[in-house]
Amino acid sequence: MTYDDGEFDFVTMFDCLHDMGDPVGVAAHVKEKLADEGVWMSVEPFANDRIEENLTPVGRAFYSASTMLCTPNALNQHGDHARGAQAGEAVMREVVTGRYSLFLGRWVPPDRDEPMVKTDLWQCSIG
């Protein structure tokens, strides 16, 4: 099967959505390619919604990397929605608003005091 052949039951993205200049457009494109009950799994750097909640050792490292790598890359793509690596749940929900009917959940590794990644699952709208 080639990419243009049809729909997919499962789409994955690892540590990349925040690097894209138009993550809203990416979400729309993923929806086009998902089967009616397909699932999109997005693994992104962990972030809270408020800046002060991200001022931890890992959060500071992520802000540094985002400033030097993620955000400039996204801005270079001339999109309207560059997010950077510290996009919390509210921002990522905004990215996919109207694109998916059901947020299936978030998984964060339970054995860490300060998680480094989060995994979000979205199910495609039916109809």
Automatic annotation (TrEMBL):
Q: Name one GO molecular function term.
A: methyltransferase activity
User: Which top-rank group of organisms is this from?
Assistant: Archaea
Q: Which GO terms describe its biological process?
A: methylation
Q: Which UniProt keywords apply?
A: Methyltransferase, Transferase
Please state what the protein is called: Class I SAM-dependent methyltransferase
Asked if the keyword Transferase belongs to this entry, the reply reads yes
